[in-house]
Amino acid sequence: MPPLAAFILKRLGRAVLTMWFAITVTFLLLRLLPGDPAVAVASTNMDAGMRHQLLKEYGLTQPLFTQYVKYLDQLLHGNLGQSFTQSQPVSSVLMARLPWTLLLTGSALVLTVLVGVPLGVIAATHAGAAMDRLVQTAGVVGQSLFVPSVGIFLLFFLGLRLKLLPIGGAYDENAYGAGWYLSVLQHLALPCLSLVLVSLGSYVLTMRATLIDSLGEEYCLLARSKGVSERTVVWRHALRNALLPTTTLLGLQLGFLVGGAVLTETIFAYPGVGRAIYEAVTQLDYPVLQGSFVLLAGTVVLANMLTDLAYGLLDARVRTA
Amino acid sequence: MTATAEITSVTAEPTADDPSAAAQTWDEFRRNPLGLIPLAVLAALALIAVFAPLLAHYPGGYGSAVLQPPSAAHWFGTDNLGRDIFAEVVYGTRVSMLVAVCSSALAIALGVLLGVLGAYFRRIDNVIGTVVDLCLSLPVLPLTILVAALAGPSLRTIILIIAFFSWPEVARVVRSQALAVVNLPYVDAARVIGGRHSWILRRHLLPAVAPVIVVSIVLTASRAVLSEAGLAFLGLGDPNSWSWGRVLYEAQQSGAMSSAWWTTLFPSLAILLLVVAATLIAIAYNDARNPRTRQRV
Q: Which of A39-53, A286-300, B149-163, B263-277 has the least mean pLDDT?
């Protein structure tokens, strides 16, 4: 098999394995933890015959393995079960909300990179100087921020005190056409900014450290001795090689970012999957919670796979690794 | 100044009573204010946690002074039910520190065990490595939420959940450090002279990964504080005890967060203080341990 095909196949296999793992863990948790909704419904002080009837209806009298196979079969058909509180399938509840979460986390990710790369470059090229110290301090503090604290702070000052930006929902219901898109951007600003602020710190610190390492490598020395300007050495030689480890980090951060989205969406009443999770928690709507995890895990796994594949196409070293 | 320090360190090294590596690290750490001050902050927070009953009355019952801004009577103001926020934050320190210590201890124990075993017994390494990779590539918070909702909120559940979802990170770091050591000649030598596995693991591998463990403890503990606060903020905290996340949750639930800044500012600062302190300690410890940065200073 050509190495490229083998690489793609291997990466696909890993994505499938990860999803299988996520789904199996969810199944086991649902069956083994005391809060199992079906068991909770069929409470113990119920008439024995009725309880058996209920358990049978939920398929809970079957052997665990049979239940597991049925569960997998349902998921493969996109069936995430029925919401307890909204009397519609979990998949339609969540699918309506997924685009908002994708918009939020996606824009936060892009902004983190767009702001993080220059900051990392400034810090690395001024290593040890005041500028570098400032970026490092900000990075450490940024890394330590609690998502809701940042969100509430932004909501309070930019949203309520200065009235610069709207603080709830995802769009203006009375806006049409171009105005609607503008209102979407305005509503996106504060939740997105909260996420960027919490994810920027570790990205910049990693970018700085990898760049400093790259700048000390021999190919940079060679470029400098050829008379290439320092600017080109930094941006064209060192940065290109520093991008790979930081992109890997970004993949790991995606999971963190999705968690952050749950919290920011809660604060800003942003109608994404995260807000659905918050609502499901208050109503103990287990099928929605479970479906949200499976859906978000799928998104993260897919995004990671696509990043890896793109990188494999661009960088031959990744394929052989 | 620096010249004399360098001379003393150079002359001190070859003497017979060579201080141990740990003592050297501490000696170096002691001189770094960016390590010492955060350590004092953590110690102060621990004291606040222990002596909480001496500092404030337990925030129960409802007061008549509702949503009062900070004053001499209520340093951090009062919440929507007239409870003293200073007291809530002080008692919250207890829960946050308890969760940090317990869940990080559990996560470290599990992570170190599996990380070291994986690096040493190559046959099980594949399994452990794969499980760690799988766990790390999934979004943790939504899964934690599902488990917390299913298991029902209590302090013990929260500690167990956070520990259970933090060990893969520890295992990953410990494993990669242990892998670098396993193939060194002295470990081979220990095997050649017929050392038992348990002896080699205890005597040679654990000490080699110990510095990584120190850093992991600090970072896992600070991340546990954030996880607990996150769960509590979503209403999945222990309803019978105060935590910083719960103060924020109640401010959000009651709508107080949009009118009374003090309901959210002080618990937020407490979280930030603890996490920044822990991060700085980890950085200072790494610098103190690393001979390269030591020489530079």
A: A39-53
Residue A33 per-residue DSSP state: S
Tell me what pLDDT residue B274 has: 94
Q: Is residue B78 helix, strand or coil?
A: strand
Q: Which two tokens stand for residue B111?
A: 């992570």
pLDDT tens track for A117-144 = 999 999 999 888 888 989 999 999 998 9
Q: Which tokens belong to A124? A: 């690395």
Spell out which residues of chain A touch residue B145, defining contact as CB-CB under 8 Å: 262, 277, 281, 289, 293
Alpha-carbon separation of residue A5 from A15, A89, A248, A304, A321 (angstroms): 15, 38, 21, 18, 14
Per DSSP, the residues of A200-261 read HHHHHHHHHHHHHHHHTSHHHHHHHHTT--HHHIIIIIIHHHHHHHHHHHHHHHHHHHHHHH
Cα dihedral sign, B197-B199-B204-B208 = positive
pLDDT at B13: 38
Rounded Cα distance between A247 and A206, Å, is: 10
Nearest CA-CA distance, residue B142 and chain A, Å: 5
Cα dist from B220 to A250, B26, B107, B216, whole Å: 20, 21, 8, 6
- The partner residue sitting opposite B138, judged by closest CB among A22, A30, A267, is A22
Assess: ipTM above 0.95. no
Q: How far is B212 from chain A (nearest CA, A)?
A: 18
Distance CA B15, CA A201 (A): 43
What confidence tens digit (pLDDT) does each residue in B31-60 have? 888 888 999 999 999 999 999 888 888 887
What pTM did the predictor assign?
0.87
A93 Cα to chain B: minimum distance (Å): 16
Q: Is A163 exposed, middle or buried (0-12, 13-18, 19+ CB in 10 A)?
A: exposed
